Amino acid sequence: MDHTTSVNPRPTLTLQQATKVIEQLYGVTITEISTLPSYIDQNFLVVDKEGTKHVLKIMNSEESKRTTLLEVQTLAMSFLRQHEVPAQTAVPTTTGQLMSMEEIDCGHGVQTYCVRLLTYIPGKTIQRSQVTMQDLYHVGKLAATVDKTLQQVSSKMVSPNLDVLLKYDTLWSLLNIPLLEGYLSVMDGDPLQEVVKAVIEQYKSHVQPKIISFQKDPFTEGHYVELTCFYSSPEWTNQKLSLGIIHGDLNDQNIIVIPIDTGHHEVSGILDFSLLVNGCYVFELAITIMYLMLENPSPLDVGGAVLAGWESIMQLNDDERDSLFLLVLGRLCQSLVYGRHNVKKYPDNKSYILTTAKSGSRLLVKLWELGKKEVERKWFSDARTFLVSK
């Protein structure tokens, strides 16, 4: 998520500006409005005169240029909701549009921002909830269900613009772990830099050769993504990979839960489809495990529960199982490195951007010291025990 423009792409609308946008586009009278956290976009919680809550999302100006991609992301949200997956969805404007491109001056010149009014999901983020291992099993199951449902988007070709996902190459893709090397200077002087370098090397030697065998969407045969991310690896020259549509960012702040009986929780909603990409299904699992470990008091117990839930829907193959540990570490390294990189550009949002860094640095060191063999032994053993006890 690198932005080369000299103008700050992050929207900084005032409450008055945001209120005016909603009233003009949606014909809604706002009685309450407050800011919500976001990485480099801007979110507002709004309440109308009927007491109905919504979330106003203003995309940053760089991402707003990718209108076709945003349309596909918005479509995927609606598609999931139609198939009973609890995804946040967009509310139509008074003219029936699910998104609107608006020219707004936030104090540094007029820029164009994508504006969407999204349904409000009741509950708390999983980051702020004391979830059980049983809850995490169901999150893993839901993560696999999301990707399984998105397969139908490909099979039914519900949008002629799906090919845009094949061309969307984000630094955050787990295909792009080697590109971290270009950002390591932000960690100069930090001993953690050596661990990150070691993870990248292990990824290139151990995971990269196996990616071609990772499971893919059967409906994307003939629709390929060029593996430009492996430009430095001769064995990948002219290779192509057929992938599946994945959420790509099922982190602990994008999963909303509500408490139910006996101290458990259920997922009330999934947020933020801005990293919807074509990727390998095991990437979704690795990303989910990594983020759910961050704030959990027993982080090593998380992997087995999430894995068991995932495999109740989609079984991993041998190469995926053998790569899971390094994929989890790869995403953790991405979050730590890109967090430091982006906080230099958006210092006013430092607290939110460095959320992962609070416990992520310790977690990376702990996992690396335990090693692949020991961590995988626990994850897979716990998953088997979990499934037997179901």
Give the CA-based shape.
Answer: globular
| Helix and strand pattern | HEEEHEEEEHHHEEEEEEHHHHHH
Class computed from helices, strands and strand pairing:
alpha+beta
Radius of gyration: 21 Å
Report on the biggest sheet.
6 strands, antiparallel
User: How helical, in percent, are the residues?
Assistant: 40-55%
Instruction: Give unreliable regions as ranges.
Output: 1-5, 221-239
Oligomeric state of the chains in view:
single chain
Describe, in plain words, how this protein is organized in 3D:
- The chain is of the alpha+beta class and 390 residues long.
- The chain contains 11 helices and 13 strands.
- The chain has helices at 15-26, 67-82, 133-156, 163-167, 192-207, 281-294, 299-311, 318-345, 350-353, 355-370, 372-389; strands spanning 30-36, 42-48, 53-58, 90-91, 100-105, 110-119, 124-125, 225-226, 240-241, 244-246, 255-259, 265-270, 277-279.
- α5 runs antiparallel to α8 and α6 (281-294) packs antiparallel against α7.
